[in-house]
Amino acid sequence: MYIELFVNVTSKAWALPILSSLHAGIPGRQATLLTATGASRTSFAQSMEHLIELGLLERNPGHGHPLRPEFRLTEFGKESAAIAHKINSVSQDEDQHLLRRAWTLPVLASLHTPSHFNDIRRSLLTITDRALSQSLKSMESRNWVHRSVNVDARPPRPIYSAINTGGRICQITAPEISFMQR
Which of 37, 58, 72, 112 has its CA 20 to 30 A from that of 162? Predict the structure, then answer.
């Protein structure tokens, strides 16, 4: 999966929990997915529409009532759902709020090697300095990212590394995400 798609998928808060639930075998009906994810109806509907637009989900033809459709993963969506399920399996319930934030997972994916702030920003073309800074701070406070300062450099520069749960998520995403430009 290219990093651009990963950034796009994770931009909606409930996209990964929906994909993970479908991968786990939860039926693709709205009521069952709402219960499984805990999302509000509005956020859930926006995330579902987003996943359909990306080509990861589709309506299951011939199943469901027009007012209560059933959805299924596309072939392309099965790959994303497997990644989402792996990420979900290494995280705790209290981690879900941080995982639903737009830049958490792309930043962790970029930390497959210890990196400087500018290196992370270059690998995530559309991230702003403020969004990256806030994302790193929130993951650092959760002990998912370690910030150390290289005092030998002139000027001294911080280096960020994924650790603990962040490190496990990084190990899952690193082999799956390509940072090459299409």
Answer: 37
